[in-house]
Each structure stands twice: as structure tokens, then as C-alpha cells.
Amino acid sequence: MLVLSRRPDEKILFPNLGVTIQVLRVQGNVVRLGIDAPPELRVLRAELQDKSSAQSKLNKHALANIQNKAQLQAHLLQRKLECGAAGGDEDGLHRLLESLESLEQELAPPKRAQPLCKTLVVDDDTNERELLAGLLAMHDCECAVAEDGEAAMGYLETHKPDFVLLDMWMPRCDGRETIRRIRTDQRLAGLKVFGISGASMEEVGVQQGQDGVDAWFSKPLDPRLLWKTMQGFLHV
After folding, report:
1. Model pTM greater than 0.70?
2. Which residue of 17, 67, 162, 224 has the smallest Cβ count within 10 Å?
3. pLDDT at residue 164, as a whole number
4. Which residue range is the domain that position 123 belongs to?
């Protein structure tokens, strides 16, 4: 759950969606919000949402992708927003995000009898790894998480997932060392390793190929591109 504090007239931006939310007035426990969104993106109060109507009128796959991207982008934007003085606006923002989450859950495809793939998400940021794992679970990925390379290697001693999604800057055992250890372990031959970082491969000292990563993704992460790449490796 993203929690923000905003003063009146301050804004929250979802730039990849073209959505701007502005706090207009805070009075007691009531927050007045202004929402500027593209005409094709419906914005509803939760109590007025007609689930059956929404399902029949909206492209479920496209909307689920939009919601996935919005959730991840919202978390990444959290780091860039300066916290204002507590003004009682948290409840209004909570309701807005809860509405998005409810719609996302409603549009989730039915679960398969078996997961489409198994993935290990490795990141020392708890929110980022849990959020990414949650988004992948929407695509029938069975996800495990690890807080750094050392924990990841412990998990890989008894499990072999299809993918490892690996942050680069972590304590104890960073991404570069984790890749080296994976690639020198014969038990893990063929394991697909994706690097995720705000830096370039050259800056991190990682290469793409048999001894390095199978794919590289820059932050802020585009979950649609990530999933498309994973599908390519799964041939689905």
C-alpha cells in the first residue's frame, strides 16, 4: 500500500498513464481531489463501481497491464515525492488506491492448475520485491523472494526456478557476485537470470550472455516489457 502525505494544491503524477491527482481541499476527515485522466481511462468512486458492467465494457488484458504498471510506477514515484505536513489526506488516497487494487483483482485471469513459471525475485528493498512478485503472480507466476544474493543462493540450493530477477546493489552479496556464483554452479545450468538496475551493465560490471545475464532491464521497470521477455523464453 502506497502512503503519501500531500498539502492542498500539491499533486501526485502517474506520468506513464497521463494521470494527475491534485489535493484541492482538506476539511476534517474529507479530502477533495481533482483527477485529470485520459478519456479512455475510467475513474470511479468505489461505491459506484458496477463490476459486471466494467468487465463487459473494458478490455481486461489491456486494463490489467495498465494497473500493473500504475502500481509499480506509484511505488517508484514514492521515492521522488517530498512528504508534506500531515493534513488528513491519507484516507482519501488510501481509498483511491484500494479501488485500483480491487479492480485489478477483479480483472485477474483465473488461476491455472499449475503455475506458468517459477520466479525468484531478489531485491533488498522489501516493497519493490513484494510489489514485483505480486505483479508477476497476476500472470500465474509462482514467486519466491530473497532480500539479497546470499539469501538467493540459499534458496537455490533446494529450488530451481525458471527465472531469477536480480537487483544489482544489495548488501552481503550483490548482483554481480550472485551472477558469478549462479553461473559457476552446474546444478543451475540453464537458469534464466534477468538483471534489474538503475545503472548500466557497464557500470555494474556485468555482461550479457552465457556467463552473465540473459536480459537486462533498467529502472524504472516496465512490467509489460519484462513479462513479454519472460514469455519469449517460455515460448508461450
Report:
1. no
2. 224
3. 97
4. 117-234
Domain count, the chain: 2
Nearest-angstrom CA–CA distance, 72 and 199: 18
CATH of the domain at 124: 3.40.50.2300
Instruction: Dump the DSSP string for 117-184.
Output: EEEEEE-S-HHHHHHHHHHHHTTTEEEEEESSHHHHHHHHTT---SEEEEES--SSS-HHHHHHHHHT
pLDDT in tens, 72-118: 655 544 554 555 544 444 554 555 465 566 556 655 556 566 889 99
The 8-class DSSP code of residue 82 comes to P
Domain end residue (candidates: 87, 106, 125) = 106
φ and ψ at residue 10, rounded to 5 degrees: -85, 155
Last residue of a domain, one of 106, 137, 160: 106
